[in-house]
Structure formats: structure tokens, C-alpha cells
Specification:
Layout: H1 5-24, H2 29-56, H3 71-81, H4 85-104, H5 109-127
Helix pairs in contact: 1-2, 2-4, 4-5
Length: 136
């Protein structure tokens, strides 16, 4: 996959905004809103739209897991996901879009569940090395 500098700047801006907003959320309702918007936009634009565009442009995602910390992750990725990348990346795009919309949808249970799911997906990705620069 081609790593675009603007995509990295976008991700960094959204993540930094969400982190700062989460610290300030104890005292500020506006900070909670800003953090929620940052995570929702990250899921919709940085996740769903970016992956959909890469898929439409013919990216195969075959080498995505090459930097994984465990060899079985790379092997499984190349054996299962790479040959069926339209299916699996398509499902990822759908998941990210749904979670992004639910995060932005307002207060209540759907938003809380969406935030929990997005954090668990990010945590899972960082533990297998899919997100090498992100450690929780």
C-alpha cells in the first residue's frame, strides 16, 4: 500500500485531537463532543473511505501484514485475506463506516458500543503488528 503523507497527517491530527479531548472531557462537554467527532471522522474518512479508495484503485493488501510481530499472522494473511481481499477489505470498509456513523449519531448505547468496538479493533491490530507505530 502506498503511504501518503497527507493520510498520515490526517490520522495524526484525528488521534491527537481525540487524545487531548479525552483528557479534557472530564471538565468539558465540548471536549467530549470534539473527541467523538474526531474518532467518528477518523473511522469514516481515515478508515472506510481510505480503504475503499485503495480497493477501488486496485490495491491487493498482500503485503499488509509483512511487518507483523508473529510469523503466523503474515502467513494467515497471505493465505486467507490476500486472495480474498475484495471480500475482507469490503467487510472492513462496511464495519468502519457503520462504526463511524454510529459514533457520530449521538448519545446513548449505539455510540458507546461503537467506541468500544473501534478501540478493540485498534487494540487487536496493534497487538499483531498491523499498526506498527501504535502501541496502547
Amino acid at each position: 500500500m502506498q503511504e501518503n503523507t497527507w493520510v498520515q497527517i490526517f490520522w495524526l491530527a484525528c488521534v491527537a485531537t481525540a487524545i487531548v479531548a479525552s483528557v479534557l472531557a472530564i471538565w468539558s462537554r465540548r471536549a467530549r463532543y470534539v473527541g467523538r467527532v474526531a474518532v467518528g471522522v477518523l473511522m469514516l474518512v481515515g478508515g472506510a473511505t481510505f480503504n475503499a479508495a485503495n480497493l477501488a484503485l486496485g490495491q491487493t493488501y498482500a503485503d499488509f501484514a509483512d511487518q507483523a510481530h508473529f510469523g503466523w499472522v503474515t502467513g494467515a494473511w497471505r493465505a486467507v485475506v490476500a486472495p480474498n481481499h475484495y471480500l475482507f477489505i469490503g467487510l472492513l470498509v462496511a464495519f468502519e463506516a457503520i462504526v463511524g456513523v454510529l459514533i457520530l449519531s449521538g448519545d446513548g448505547g449505539p455510540r458507546s458500543a461503537s467506541l468500544a468496538r473501534s478501540v478493540s479493533i485498534l487494540r487487536c491490530g496493534s497487538s499483531v503488528g498491523a499498526l506498527p507505530s501504535t502501541r496502547f
